[in-house]
Prior knowledge:
CATH architecture: Sandwich
Strand order of the largest sheet: 1-2-3-10-5-8
CATH topology: Jelly Rolls
Shape: globular
Distance between the termini: 39 Å
Largest sheet: 6 strands, antiparallel
Number of strands: 12
CATH superfamily: B-lactam Antibiotic, Isopenicillin N Synthase, Chain
Strand content: 15-25%
Number of helices: 6
Amino acid sequence: MSFTNEVLEYVRKFHELGSEVKKKYYSRDFKKKVVYISNFDLYKAPSVDWRDTLYLIMAPKPPQPEELPQVCKESIMEHSNQVKELGIKLFELISEGLGLNKNHLKEMDCAEGLYVIARHYPFCPQQNLTLGFSSHTDSGFLTLLLQDQIGGLQVLHNNHWVDVPLSPGALIVNLGDLMELITNAKFKSVYHRVLANNICPRISVAFFFRMHLQENSNSRLYGPIKKLLSEENPPIYREAIGEEIVACRYTKGLDGIPLLSHFKLNACPSNQIV
Length: 274
């Protein structure tokens, strides 16, 4: 079984477990290393999306093996390590693409945190009334996404929603808000969403390179990389602790306001997104 198929299959097995098994992972405490829930912003967003999610903090301090769901723990642990190595290679390429030393982003600890989100989008009898996942940008540096063959992922391009073509076995690479912040918008985060469907359940697994919410954490400060700034290219965003951006997403929810607007210099969050 291929890497992608194996991860998706074991995640599917978890979501097919009975409620009695899954409910022991249910929590709204997102500082826990293993959380099962529907909508993280259930009491904040103006609408509810059609999905269930298993959240896993896999780096820098992963859960103990016994904390992970038995049905998928070996697959998640093994493939998180493989994705971590791939992510480091991608950060090297991105660094070189920015004209920096290839280890620049790695030395900024961009690859230090890994947050895994394993989603199940159930069959939706009235798909015109909801979305699988509302329009948003990812909050981290980089996201590697696996999806099954059901489809539904769209990206916003020139103010139009465009279907992301299905490619069996492919990893979709997406840039997030922290990447836009540190590159001063040279690389931009991408708005995307997932449609609800009335065909059959959809499974996806997203590997987010970012730190998560940690108590008493001494996370480093991130701001536009100074080597990328000049008089013609002044900083757009203020410096922020990485977890501050993540916390803002959890506090605000998917409220229709671009996440990075809260971190712009001399600006206030006002522009709505689709």
